[in-house]
Amino acid sequence: MDLPNLAVVLRGALSHVPEERKAAEENLNQFQFTPQHLVRLLQIIVDGSCDMAVRQVASIHFKNFVAKNWSPNDPDESQKVSVSDKSMVRENILGFIVQVPPLLRFKSEEDRIPLYHIVEETFPFLLSIFSKLVQIVNPPIEVADLIKLICKIFWSSIYLEIPKQLFDPNVFNAWMILFINLLERPVPVDGQPIYPDIRKSWGWWKVKKWTIHILNRLYTRFGDLKLQKSESKTFAQMFQKNYAGQILGCHLQLLNAIRTGDYLPDRVTNLILQYLTNSITKNSMYQMMQPQINIILFEIIFPLMCFNDNDQKLWEEDPHEYVRKGYDIIEDLYSPRTAAMDFVSELVRKRGKSNLQKFIYFIVDIFRRYYEASAEVKPYRQKDGALLAIGTLCDKLRQTDPYKAELERMLVQHVFPEFSSCVGHLRAKVVYVETWVAGQYAHINFSDQDNFRRAMHCIVAGMCDPDLPVRVDSVFALRSFVEACKDLNEIRPILPQLLDEFFKLMNEVENEDLVFTLETIVDKFGEEMAPYALGLCQNLASAFWKCMASSEADDEADDSGALAAVGCLRAISTILESVSSLPHLFTQIEPTLLPIMCRMLTSDGQDILVPLDNYISRGSDHFLACKDPDYQQSLWNALSSIMMEPNMEDSDIEPAPKLIEVLFQNCKGHVDQWVEPYLRLTIDRLRRAEKPYLKCLLLQVIANALYYNPSLALAILHKLGVATEIFNLWFGMLKEVKKSGIRANFRREHDKKVCCLGLTSLIGLPVDHIPAEVLDRIFKATLELLAAYKDQVAESKKQNDDAGDDMDGFDADEDDNDDEEVESDKEMGLDDEDGDDINSLHLQKLATEAKGFQPADEGDESDDDFSDDEELQSPIDEVDPFILFVDSVKGLQASDPSRFQNLMQTLDFGYQALANGIAQHAEERRVEIEKEKLEKGNAQ
Fold first, then answer.
1. Nearest CA to 478 among 500, 460, 496?
2. At 630, phi and psi to the nearest 5?
3. Is 584 exposed, middle or buried (0-12, 13-18, 19+ CB in 10 A)?
4. Residue 64 pLDDT more than 90?
5. pLDDT higher than threshold 80 for residue 550
6. Fewer CB within 10 Å: C terminus or N terminus of the chain?
7. How far apart are CA 436 and CA 393, in angstroms?
8. Are the C-beta atoms of 347 and 818 separated by less than 8 Å?
């Protein structure tokens, strides 16, 4: 799953629509063991452009997964996380942590004190050793290994926070002199391996890479004064004045290797371009680049965007690997080409007035020379880079005069002809450009509407191309065309052909992006896919088994088999949804899907608890009535074996109490015989539970039992002699708060609602069931809980509304600042640093807001609020806890006036005010509910 789709899934986990939320959570569960999933989560966590709520979900999912699956508890248990993923996480985790706001960080300042002690004790010795190593003349390769180790130690220590010892200018300068010495020093020629794959890992190139890593990190941390805390502002000023420009000059010198044809490792190139890209928005740094900007842009950046010898070799010798690399997000992270594209995008976005026009003229000149040259001397690779540049600048071009008016002519004249090019990589590149065309179609006013149709048919033809990369790119591009197509009649006649070509390709390549295209087609055509449903499922099932076999054959390989297998299952689910109103098709499809279901449900019982929810909630009548097999007994056998297992961790059995809740809520009045067994089971596990969250879930089972049948459940608690024990624990946990003042337990809206329903159900019981002093505690606890629930619901609604408003204004803010230029700043009488101020206003605002985030309390299980199924679809969705409470109190008043009067007299002024507020809110809810029912009726 690529980053944009993963972000969509994570956002879906926050949805208020139960079906969307559940689907998203199932997707996350399916993908959690696929290669690179952890790395993608980290990327979203540090993505400042991503919604904070999505980043929180990603961080929680990451934390929970690592805690549970990083190392198996049993020595004989197989590794769930691949070695390559672990290595990737270890290499990047410190770097990523520092980029997240305090709200998402996992460690407090106190937790980092041991690191500072280590720095204080060891860094003076390391600095001395480092200095001596750097001064060695003609050093052997072993020296490079030692220097690399010191660099990695230093890099790890600064990535989260700069240790206070390094804020001493003398100490910091001593380190910087050595790093800049290494940066300026040419890599020794003698001893360099010949083969590039070995050469990039040679010791002295590793030293160069880690040196640049360190300097980039420092620049990211101290490159913008507006993001600094007051205590670090002086240090940041010193860094910018003394080092930032010097580092930039060294980087530019290193990049000359690209102009001269000398060797420079891809990762080093990537890191240097990141530094240059970060410098574009800073006027003082950009002015240093400006005299050389044409050289940078046309002799360094553009050549990196062009098809090269390595690409050609891979295209010819291993097209499958070429495809894999093209769709691998990790490859993008380290790719010079991706870094070059990022540089161009940032340059025209922030310095567009002085650079966009000349860059476009440069691209147009390449198009002209290509058009005029004979086939033997056409600059095919430059045309490839020019097409990539057009795709990279798509958003800017479609918004900017005069380019947006010329887009259609450019496509017709310079893009469409390459669909029939004799050069395979050019055919693939125009597919890339056409993917953008489809995605932006709604924003382009074509003078000739046939041009969109022509492009789409070229994409379809590309699915039969002799070169594999072109075929794969065509399928991927087709997805954008299907999404953008306003008239499905354009696609409907060729639908059988599309599906045939699609499955031919799936048999050849394991790639989840192919499945995304199929899902889009199925979703677009809905029930029209019925004639193809059986064939689609059969083909997808076949592809699933092939992908599973490929994935299981090499557990450590960084293959896409597992991802593609999950994609097949997701596509099958989409097909079933599309034909859900045609149940006769399911009997035809079942034999194909049953083996897959059996294969996927052979793991631990806990893994199938969530799917069992559907069988109980959506098929309650059959679940209750069927005796052969006896589903109720089978459920008991599964849950009791799990909850009674002494060796199972608290986190492993969390789905079990949730499933008991599903039983009581969906089978109200029909499972009386199971109330006592499940309460016994719950109380036994409650006494052994250690995690507060599990205790909350188990107490919610008791709350659900009370709501199911308060007299029966309370009688069982008394029979077991645990009523006082349970209520003391329950009320104690309801009262418990953290240092920040928030509730420590029952933190989700769903938790509070279930507790309210359970406690409210006791209010109407007679005095021989609930003594007066117990009723008083229940009444007050319920009032407090209802008030907290009301505030949380209101806050959730407010956050959702605010999030919508923020997204509405985001693009406008970006547009307003896109064209800030040095020249325009000077016209306003501003000097260079003033210009930095203007460009950084938005960042300064964000930094100020970020200071308001405080680290969570120690032991704060913040994942509770996000990682579980908030507001699962269930019968209690229709029950308003405020109305139920008020009606129960009115019932008590009618049935036992004296008891009601005594209860009211025990309330102090605070509780009386709380009760009046709840009563008023209940009446407001009655009006709202009636209004919603009326609107729903009118809509039907």
1. 460
2. -85, 95
3. exposed
4. no
5. no
6. C
7. 10
8. no
